[in-house]
Amino acid sequence: MEQPLLSIIIPVYNSEKTISRAIISVLEQASVELELILVNDGSTDESLHLMKRFTEMDSRIKLFTRQNEGVSSARNFGIQQAKGKYITFLDADDYYIENGLEKIMKDVNENTQLVIYGYDIVYENKTIECSPPFKSCLQFSEYDDFREYCLLLIENEIINAPWNKVYLAEFLREHNILFPPELDMGEDLKFNLGVLRDVQYVNVIPQPIVNYTVNKGAGLVSKFRGNRLELRYNLMVELKNLISYWRKLDKTEAVIDSMLIRDIMAFFMDFFKSNCDYTRTEKRKMAKTVLRHDVIKQILAKQHQYDLATRLIKGILVTSNSSLILIAAKILNLGRRFR
Predict the structure, then answer these.
(1) What is the pLDDT of residues 230-241, one digit of tens each?
(2) Can you give the pTM of this predicted structure?
């Protein structure tokens, strides 16, 4: 097989209910020269059996089995194995639209380093479209032009995921960009910050190409983690450092601080997830500790022009009334169930 145009990497861990759909959505992209790299990350269900059946039917599929080391390690291994000129990622419970990859790759040229496209968030009872700003396809060839546009992508939180992007494999390897295995949250954003720092030739496609599925109560997003706020804060610092490197922080600092304010409330909302065993007294104590932190106080003291939701959250947080804050967090957490 000659060098494929695109390598699609799917890390798989106990995904027997969805992996067939993901694989089929790739194989049906008939007009794109591709290879599909399946990295079985120590699955204990029928995922491996299902993947083996597909490898017997299609020579474009490469299947690798490793002990369980997490999604970042699995993706990094996939990058090492990839033979394609370009690399993209798909999660085992997500899937492409019909002919989606053809739409992505048809405008790629010899200079293209990155392609960014839209996606649909598929809930149990509804679908929400998430698309880059502007409805027309865009091509960037100047650093500053893309960086100006990227500020809008940051504001719309389009930069986080790796599965709505295609990366030039040579660019990733030249800059030694890999997923950080030590993180169990925010690893996608950290990976993309490394890409965005010096990327120049970028295509943007507003159309949703990937269906990102959300099952209530499933996955890491449903779990309480005591280090969530610390991890998010560290990532926001890295994001600020990136934008400072671009010399554009004055245009975006309010957006990043708004993200941090929402992250503070989200951390308190997580107190009401089923696997959080804090007592009410411990929750109140933790809330007070967080709000007394100098960095948090500095963020809440800033007088940016925030959107309405952020202003309301900030108004609750600045009271430092732990009982009021926890009541608000509990109500907001209940709202998650009805998305």
Answers:
(1) 999 999 999 999
(2) 0.91
